[in-house]
């Protein structure tokens, strides 16, 4: 603990953001950052707790509390304060392969569990992490560091999201030869073609891929395993295959008129925008434009929020976001105490932007769509909605429509962000791996080995749609099991 009285002396201070009305003019990252001296003061707020809840990574009531990667947070807070950036970087990279991603997109369960947050504001752990990794790049400390010895073992990773990348990085460090196969034209999974550019600029991904290539990992894009390349080929050619294909099968809305034109899944909308942005600065017109349209986003979660922010940047005429669940409380409820994840109202960047641009919060709670009304050309023109009443019964939670609450709203573009229902089945079928009741690939508990010899699974394809930080954790864990299987022991952590 660098400064014993830091938490008493310094208030929490963030780098801040560009205001909503300015940042919607482009798709660039809108976060500002503190000066080094200020970041040091923020690190000094850390109390180096005897029980550092920030790094615990527990599941409490089904929600994450503390860092799933068990990042050595108090140690690097101390090292930032003591002006030892190289040592802070070393401690950070010991547990996290990709702090450049997590310090931008993680919802920071570490901060939600920080002891300082019990009766004050938590330590700025996420921004401290950003400063360590970005100062590391700026100082030239992050260079390719290939393994000195190769084991002769060959591993194929299918899917280049954060989980596949973490597994590849760990196994390459151990000296195995790793090839990552990716179906898309660009590497990164949902980091690349899910999370919008303003949350994670795509050159940040490419910067890390360049380092990984320099360390000997090969990437093959436009390679759809189970389709354009046979699963058997990989099983024959490699000592192990790791499936890291995500869980991107979207949940649909089964209502009359769903087949209408102008109704899309959220990820298709977000991907098309990012691809066009990267290919041509949106000049090729090959994206689903919300310009001048009345947009209806179905789903009040983070993906829905990304759709709101992206639609506003396109120049949408209006945006409405429907959420089935009731509006959360502004403060923690009595049955949701620290260090549990706080189930409170969060007004995310897209919603802040909608408030600034249109003058209203786009979210409508306890409401769903019952029908899409199509015009003569089959294009969506209206959506019928109804309010829902949440009922908690013995067999679980159910929602009943409230009579007389029906409404019809004008819409030109509908984006379905209603969650995901597991992995796409064709990859599992191609490898003959069993699926479980959640449509993710089945393994024994605490194992990543599928029902097929040599074939392992990781990330969302294993645990279901989750977070980048969990995907990295899974990638590190599958790497450990694969290494042990191949070598008879492992020294990976
Ligand atoms: C819109 C959106 C926004 C999100 N925002 C956040 C956020 O801000 N913070 C956060 O922590 N989490 C966020 N998440 C969740 C997070 O992105 C995922 O949990 C994480 O990316 C999962 O990583 P993964 O490696 O398991 O799979 P994915 O990232 O889904 O990657 C899987 C990859 O496998 C490839 N693939 C699939 N099948 C094949 C095949 N047959 N052959 C070759 N390649 C194949 C896919 O093309 C894809 O590139 C978001 C999710 C979405 C949908
Ligand atoms: S819980 Fe907060 S104050 Fe305690 S060690 Fe972690 S970051 Fe520091």
Mean pLDDT, to the nearest integer, reads: 96
Task: Assign the CATH superfamily of the largest domain.
Answer: FAD/NAD(P)-binding domain
Strand content: 15-25%
How many helices does DSSP assign? 18
What is the CATH topology descriptor of the largest domain?
A: FAD/NAD(P)-binding domain
Q: How many angstroms does the end-to-end distance come to?
A: 25 Å
The CATH class label of the largest domain is Alpha Beta
Keywords:
globular; five-stranded parallel beta sheet; 493 residues; FAD/NAD(P)-binding domain; 34% helix; Fumarate Reductase Iron-sulfur Protein, Chain B, domain 2; binds iron/sulfur cluster; 16 strands; 3 domains; alpha/beta; binds flavin-adenine dinucleotide
Please characterize this protein's 3D structure.
With 493 residues, the chain is an alpha/beta fold. It folds into 3 domains: 6-138, Alpha-helical ferredoxin (Fumarate Reductase Iron-sulfur Protein, Chain B, domain 2, Orthogonal Bundle); 154-248 and 421-487, FAD/NAD(P)-binding domain; 263-416, FAD/NAD(P)-binding domain, CATH 3.50.50. Helices cover 34% and strands 16% of the residues. It contains 18 helices and 16 strands. A hairpin with a 5-residue loop joins strand 11 and strand 12 (380-393). The mean pLDDT is 96. The strands form 4 sheets. It has a 5-stranded parallel beta sheet, sandwiched between helices. It starts with 5 loop residues before the first helix and ends in a 6-residue tail after the last helix. Bound molecules: flavin-adenine dinucleotide and iron/sulfur cluster. Flavin-adenine dinucleotide is lined by residues 105-106, 158-164, 181-184, 189-191, 194-195, 199, 223-226, 244-246, 248, 267, 270, 302-303, 306, 427, 459-461, 465-469, 471.
């Amino acid at each position: 603990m660098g400064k014993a009285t830091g938490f008493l002396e310094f208030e929490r201070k963030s780098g801040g953001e560009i205001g909503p009305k300015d940042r919607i003019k482009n798709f660039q990252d809108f976060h500002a950052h503190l000066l080094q001296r200020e970041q040091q003061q923020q690190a000094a707020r850390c109390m180096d707790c005897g029980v550092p809840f920030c790094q615990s990574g527990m599941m409490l009531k089904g929600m994450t509390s503390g860092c799933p990667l068990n990042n050595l947070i108090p140690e690097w807070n101390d090292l930032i304060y003591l002006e030892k950036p190289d040592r802070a970087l070393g401690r950070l990279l010991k547990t996290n392969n990709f702090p450049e991603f997590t310090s931008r997109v993680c919802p920071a369960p570490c901060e939600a569990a920080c002891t300082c947050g019990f009766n004050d504001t938590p330590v700025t752990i996420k921004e401290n992490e950003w400063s360590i990794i970005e100062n590391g790049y700026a100082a030239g400390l992050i260079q390719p560091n290939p393994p000195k010895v190769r084991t002769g073992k060959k591993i194929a990773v299918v899917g280049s999201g954060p989980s596949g990348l973490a597994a590849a990085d760990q196994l390459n460090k151990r000296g195995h030869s790793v090839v990552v196969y990716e179906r898309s034209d660009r590497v990164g999974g949902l980091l690349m073609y899910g999370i919008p550019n303003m949350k994670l600029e795509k050159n940040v991904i490419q910067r890390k891929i360049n380092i990984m290539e320099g360390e000997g990992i090969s990437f093959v894009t436009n390679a759809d395993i189970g389709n354009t390349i046979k699963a058997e080929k990989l099983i024959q050619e490699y000592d192990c295959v790791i499936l890291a294909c995500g869980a991107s099968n979207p949940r649909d809305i089964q209502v009359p008129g769903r087949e209408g034109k102008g109704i899309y899944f959220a990820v298709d909308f977000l991907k098309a925008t990012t691809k066009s942005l990267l290919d041509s600065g949106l000049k090729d017109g090959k994206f689903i434009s919300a310009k001048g349209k009345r947009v209806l986003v179905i789903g009040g979660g983070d993906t829905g929020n990304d759709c709101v922010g992206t639609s506003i940047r396109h120049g949408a005429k209006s945006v409405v976001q429907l959420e089935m669940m009731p509006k959360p409380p502004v403060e923690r409820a009595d049955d949701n105490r620290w260090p549990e994840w706080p189930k409170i109202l969060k007004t995310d960047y897209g919603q802040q932007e909608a408030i600034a641009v249109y003058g209203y919060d786009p979210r409508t709670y306890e409401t769903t769509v019952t029908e899409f009304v199509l015009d003569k050309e089959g294009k969506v023109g209206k959506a019928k909605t109804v309010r829902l009443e949440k009922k908690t019964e013995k067999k679980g939670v159910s929602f009943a429509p409230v009579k007389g609450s029906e409404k019809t709203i004008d819409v030109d573009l509908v984006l379905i962000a209603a969650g995901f229902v597991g992995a796409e089945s064709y990859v599992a079928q191609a490898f003959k791996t069993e699926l479980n009741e959640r449509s993710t690939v089945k393994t024994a508990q605490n194992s990543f080995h599928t029902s097929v010899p040599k074939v392992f699974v990781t990330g969302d394809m294993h645990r279901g749609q989750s977070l980048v930080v969990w995907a990295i954790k899974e990638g590190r864990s599958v790497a450990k099991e694969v290494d042990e299987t191949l070598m008879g022991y492992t020294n990976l952590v």
